Amino acid sequence: MPRRLHKYEVGEAVYFTSPSFGRAAATGSYTVVKLLPSEGDDYQYRIKSSGEAFERVAKESQLERV
Q: What is the C-alpha to C-alpha distance for residues 27 and 34, in angstroms, rounded to an integer?
């Protein structure tokens, strides 16, 4: 079985949708700053919003192309 690649690339604009449970994160537009290893069958990304001073980690299933 071929290894699946990350869907998004560093520098790409994405829309982050936070999960409806747990700590509410700010949904909205982010930029991918780093590709992270997968957790189970879901790749992870480090994303950054221009309106925040910090970065977030998001799963691929929480991201959509802008």
A: 18
- 31: nearest Cα among 7, 50, 6: 50
* Coil, strand or helix at 32: strand
Q: Taking the model in full, what pTM does it have?
A: 0.82
Give the position of tokens 């604009």.
13
Among residues 54, 3, 53, 55, which one has the least CA distance to residue 32?
55
Q: pLDDT tens for residues 34-58?
A: 999 987 889 999 999 998 899 999 9
DSSP-based three-state secondary structure for 61: helix
Q: Which two tokens stand for residue 59?
A: 């799963």
